Amino acid sequence: MFLDDTACNLSSLNLTKFLSEDADGTQHFDIEGYRHAARVFFLAQEILVDYSSYPTKQIAQNSHDYRPLGLGYANLGTLLMLMGVAYDSDEGRAIAASLTAILTGHAYRVSAEVASVKGTFAGFAKNRDSMLDVMGKHRKAAYAISDRACPKNLAAAAREDWDEAVRLGAQHGYRNAQATVLAPTGTIGLLMDCDTTGIEPDFALVKFKKLAGGGYFKIVNASVERALVCLGYSKGQIAEILAYVSGTNTFLNAPVVNREYLKGKGFTSDDITRVEAALRGAFSIEQALSPFTLGADLVKRLGVEEASRSPTFSLLSHWGIPRSEIETLGDHVLGRSTVEGAPHVREEHLPVFDCANRCGRHGRRFLAPMAHVKMMAATQPFLSGAISKTVNLPNDATVDEVADIYYQGWKLGLKAVALYRDGCKASQPLSSTSAEEKKDDAKPASKAIEAKAESTSTPAPVVTGTADTTSEFGPLFSKSPVLAPPRKSVRYRLPKKRSGFTQEARIGGHKVFLRTGEYQDGQLGEIFIDMHKEGAAFRSLMNSFAIAVSMGLQHGVSLAEYVDQFTFTRFEPQGSVVGHANVKFATSIIDYVFRVLGVEYLKRYDLAHVPPTDEEKAEADQSPMTPSAALRRARTPRRSPSTRAAAATRSTSSSAR
User: Fold this and answer.
1) Listed residue (404, 403, 420, 416) closest to 377, CA to CA
2) Whole-angstrom Cα distance, residue 515 to residue 531?
3) What is the DSSP pairing of strand 585-586 with strand 575-578?
4) Which secondary-structure segment (H or E) carries 216?
């Protein structure tokens, strides 16, 4: 949320690294260590402004003129849990506000100190009064942090930093127009050993991350134990609670299927050890006992070699164990993924472990959507930029609830709000339950959504007759009335001899030739995509795709529809683009093709990383030739009269030879 055409380097601090405990369990947040880390990282980012490379000249210029930085933090949700503080509480919001105020206040304090030596950012002089006014608002907000809800040392440190930031800024100015943002920290959070990302609460105490190459892996919040210690539970009580949440991870003394039962079925001690080693990463007991885990030799010894070839094979079901007993076994061995109902846990402590979603099959509690919005509102007054944060909604959220979130976010002064309804996409990277557990819960919601869609949809043309079956997949598969088929289109063929252009470029090191064919009025009618060094299959797919697009264009599908549909498509090869005057980066070959077509034929300069100059645009608009040809000619380097004369002489000499 800054000026257009600027870049901002990011760094984030893991908040839990500054939380320490005495032998008696008393906790301390290391304010001076936190300030020191903020200073070091802020200076490092400031140095990087001059050493970074930028995708366009305009971005480079603005980044040097305003020097925006993005210092932030991660693991706030875990920090509050470790402190025994609920995310959705006045105390939790006050702590977050203070930590954000210290971070930004100290960053601007350092920025003013650097400005006293290196000078202010280039745009400071004309923005001086406005910026100092904003700094005063930050300082005023720091004094509005609740002393009742916030630890006194945190609130005092926040006010001290903002007092100094304002004083030094008035005296020396600032080196940086922007100092802080709260980034999502999704990838770096894993490297930083964070249980939660950015300003987020935990997604769920136990979650399943979908892998790009297929499959899942299980992530268990490692902070529950320390949180229970902070809340005063004994070692024995904590052990029982953790076993309830994460399971025993052993078949020893397990209900229904224990070690003796497995040995009676033909398992050896080594087999049981191998299966138990897989329990910690399994999201269901069937997965731990899958043919892949058991191994070919054991599958053969168990006599299930033929049955195990089925994709729905379950060893426990094959042994005749009822579904209810399998679930009981799973709860004992793999855990219930929630502290709700756990032994010893007091009711007043449950909010400390509330997450963005219901935890597992047994969890019923989750943070209300407004809890996310209120936390953002508590920290926004102390940030230069905005907050990358997801407001998580349950699957049954309504349109009115979504509208209210945006409205309340506006009322509370947020710069940005993003939300996600659980299960709204066919595939999502994180889930709080396995796919099998969601199936039964999803059916009523799907029917409710379908009913809502039927009541609000626009009537379509109908013909006589009814369909045989109902379906949740839309009107083409649903009961009567049957929709009329689309009208047959007419193909407008291109002339045998047509104009167009050929564009050569490299995308992530891969050479691509884009060729176009135009109607006589200059409209696009066909495309060709050539990548002669790629494998035969990829090359054939590209050719077939180009033919399909060309047929659509000749049948009346607008180019604008194709551009909107295919830009930002992401797959390899992707990367920097060399060879095109306007497009400098592409997320795929398809993204590159339709960015170029959008710029050349539709004047969609919002898709260009380097837009044409005003003179080039004006020449393209006024030229009698097609706009795309005029724009291409406008970008062709002009030659001086002497150069043209020399070229003509060479041409004549060549002809004579």
Assistant:
1) 416
2) 12
3) antiparallel
4) strand 216-220
| Contact (Cβ atoms closer than 8 angstroms) between residue 159 and residue 167 | no
Distance between CA atoms of residues 88 and 196, nearest Å: 15
Q: Which two three-digit tokens encode residue 486? A: 């689309």
| Per-residue pLDDT at 451 | 36
Share of the chain above pLDDT 90, in %: 61
Report the residue count for the chain. Answer: 657
Residue 533: the pLDDT is: 67
Tell me what pLDDT residue 623 has: 55
CA 454 to chain centre: 31
Residue 9 forms beta bridges with which residues? Answer: 69
pLDDT for the residue numbered 371:
95
- CA trace torsion 253, 254, 258, 260 (10° rounding): 20
The Cα–Cα gap between 271 and 298 comes to 8
Contact (CB, 8 A) for 123 and 178? no
Please count the other Cβ atoms lying within 10 Å of the Cβ belonging to residue 390. 16
d(CA 14, CA 34): 10
pLDDT at 477: 40
Q: How confident is the model at residue 637 (pLDDT cuts 50, 70, 90)?
A: very low
CA 540 to each of CA 510, 520, 563: distance values in angstroms, whole numbers, following the listed order: 16, 29, 22
Residue among 394, 435, 442, 395 nearest 283 (CA): 435
**DSSP code at position 220:** E
CA 294, 298, 299 angle in degrees (round to 5)?
80
Q: What is the mean pLDDT of residues 450-473?
A: 39
Question: Using CB atoms within 10 A of its CB, is residue 208 exposed (0-12), middle (13-18) or buried (19+)?
Answer: buried
- Domain 9-191, architecture per CATH: Alpha-Beta Barrel (3.20)
The C-alpha atoms of residue 356 and residue 389 are separated, in whole angstroms, by 12
491 close to 555: Cβ distance less than 8 angstroms: yes
Which of 341, 328, 353, 326 has the alpha carbon at shortest distance from 240? 341
pLDDT at 213 over 80: no
| Residue 639: predicted pLDDT | 42
Domain ranges for the chain, please list them. Answer: 9-191, 206-334, 435-457+471-482, 502-634
* 544 neighbors 473 (Cβ within 8 angstroms): no
Residue 160 phi, psi dihedral angles, 5° rounding? -65, -45
* Cβ atoms < 10 Å from Cβ of 285: 26
Asked if 616 and 631 touch (Cβ cutoff 8 Å), the reply is yes
Cα 501 off chain centre by: 37
